[in-house]
Amino acid sequence: MNPEIEKKYQRLRSFFFGLCVLAAGLFFLITSKNIIKTQAAENWRVYSGVLESDNAARSTALFRTSWLKYSYEIDGKKYQGTRIGYGISNTNDVSGRGKTLRVYVNPEDYTDSVLVTGIKKTHIIGLLFSVGFIWLGFYLWKRTR
Fold it and tell me: What residues contact residue 135 under an 8 Å CB cut-off, 6+ apart?
């Protein structure tokens, strides 16, 4: 192979390897943060809440769009929440306006609340994507040598 083409090929290989490592790192950091937060939320105080929306329990953090709204009361003050869980965007357990819910509330910030805690399938998938991108990066690196 021409030395100049080989040099460009090596740059391209390094670029894709770097992208794979960057993607793996981002997936790992975001998923790890969500796992740590959801584990901490398991120890938060539980309050009774009421579902205020009729739609399916679904929330997307990327665009901050939410179809789920619930309210809960602490010391006579009413709070509203939209978060299902950290890294958890939907649940089948929540439906029907007026339904009573278990709301986990952060004792340091009463506006921070979740409905679902614990490590879920979405967390495992995030970690698997992280491992997959690392594997892909090293595969590309090794394959193109």
Answer: none
Say what the pLDDT of residue 105 is. 95
Interval 10-38: pLDDT, tens: 888 888 888 999 999 999 999 999 999 99
Using the 8-state DSSP alphabet, how is residue 111 labeled?
Answer: T
C-alpha distances (whole Å) from 106 to each of 6, 92, 125 are 56, 23, 26
Q: CA torsion 23→24→26→31, rounded to 10°?
A: 140
Cα dihedral across residues 123, 124, 125, 127: positive or negative: positive
Q: What is the DSSP letter of 52?
A: -
> With the CA atoms of 76, 94, 123 and 139 taken in that order, what torsion angle do they form, in degrees rounded to the nearest 10?
-140
CB-based contact 116:91 (threshold 8 Å): yes
Q: Is residue 114 within 8 Å of 84, Cβ to Cβ?
A: yes
Task: Please give the backbone phi and psi of residue 132, each rounded to the nearest 5 degrees, phi first.
Answer: -60, -40
Q: Taking the domains of the chain in order of start, what are their residue ranges?
A: 8-42+118-145, 44-117
Whether the CB-CB separation of 56 and 95 falls below 8 Å is answered with yes
How many Å apart are CA 112 and CA 29, to the nearest integer? 21
52 vs 56, residue with greater confidence: 52
